[in-house]
Design goal:
The structure is a homodimer of 199-residue chains. By secondary structure, the first copy, chain A, is an all-alpha fold. The first copy, chain A, is built from nine helices and no strands. The termini of chain A are far apart. At the A-B interface, α5, α6, α7, α8 and α9 of A face α5, α6, α7, α8 and α9 of B. The first copy, chain A, binds a DNA duplex (30 and 30 nucleotides) through loops.
DNA sequence: CAATCACCTTAAGGGTATTAAGGAGAGGAC
DNA sequence: GTCCTCTCCTTAATACCCTTAAGGTGATTG
């Protein structure tokens, strides 16, 4: 099998899934591919870029799996749910995302896709940015907490973790969507917050 | 200066603030204290415990700085704001929290303090758990995103980051508080979510 | 006074990412 | 066919890192 950036990313993903983030290393990836460690550097700048590519792949899959709901509220919930499912299925992916600096161009592309979805659902682009950031932030943080064995029992207790997540996610999505409406209708129940722009 | 767990934590904190999480290491801490690296192991089990103590100190300070608002909504907002301020002031503290497994006893204690606050503000203990988890998760995730140079411009754009955070935080807090009301009044606008408990 | 214990040292083992330099092979130019 | 070049990988080396083992020193205590 010819060495390739995609092949390396796949091998890394396999090891991450199998052994977790702590055990992931360039050496182990190279071993799995039957190659010496420095060979990876021909296809990948460094570890940070490799992990960034991995995170990017996860995010792309989430977007592909997110439904085509029409309203902003529903899309946000679908997006958040898909994001959390990804973090649950892909071991330590939350820790990975917390660790890496994804490539800027990719993030730009992904962001545009998301923002287009939300605009199509009737959100202003500025609020869509906030909403999208919020959903990703909330889901990432929740996944990190959830995968933390010592925090989980205190915070979740004997509650159903899925239901608790969905409850909070829904509240956040509805809250953000309601701000959007107040922007558009100008007679919403909540006034828009002041000074949302810099400068 | 006699070596001590607290002294070590303080030195670690200083290096974290000065050089960031990537540059933090036991060796550097030991150097700063004028001591050999293995000396640290007399006072600290391993790196994970040391970082956990650091995260614990941050969290304690946040709780101490959180106001004594009476309503659950206000307390949550105050808590979330203090948490984010801490992450902004203390460099890479979000990445640290994402990395460590804090000690269970400490988390228990802190959780109890928080939950007592929320119960005093009129929340059910179960919803307080969810609310508290949600605020910490959201703030942690937001801080991680915000400190990520390549994600920030896409997600926040030219918006005021402070205002955007506060907007989303407020929506989340109000949403969670409203669920609480519907629990207590049993005539709220939103029905309680089904199957919140496990089993 | 001797023994113990706390605390730190040096020494060593094994892990990591990364760079430098060199070799083997494919492909094209002439 | 020969030579050159470029791609892709190897070996070698550097410089970190965490952690454990074993040994020494000085204060404390019986």
């Amino acid at each position: 099998m010819a060495l390739d950036q995609q092949v390396i990313v796949s091998a890394a993903r396999e090891i991450l899934q199998q052994e977790g983030f702590d055990k992931l290393s360039l050496r182990k990836i190279a071993d799995a591919l039957g190659v010496q460690t420095p060979a990876l550097y021909w296809h990948v700048r460094d570890r940070a870029q490799l992990y960034g590519l991995l995170a990017e792949q996860f995010l792309r899959e989430v977007i592909a799996q997110t439904g085509l709901e029409t309203t902003g509220r529903d899309w946000l919930i679908s997006f958040g749910t898909a994001l959390r499912d990804s973090h649950r299925i892909n071991r330590d992916s939350a820790r990975l995302v917390a660790f890496v600096q994804p490539s800027q161009t990719v993030e730009q592309e992904v962001a545009n896709v998301i923002l287009d979805h939300l605009e199509a659902g009737g959100m202003s682009r500025d609020l869509a940015r906030i909403a999208c950031s919020s959903m990703q932030a909330f889901t990432l943080g929740w996944s990190l907490f959830e995968s933390n064995a010592s925090v989980r029992p205190m915070m979740i207790g004997n509650l159903d973790s899925d239901a608790a997540f969905l409850l909070a996610l829904t509240q956040l999505a509805e809250g953000l969507a309601s701000v959007d409406l107040s922007f558009q209708q100008t007679n919403g129940t909540k006034p828009p917050p002041p000074d949302l722009f810099v400068g």
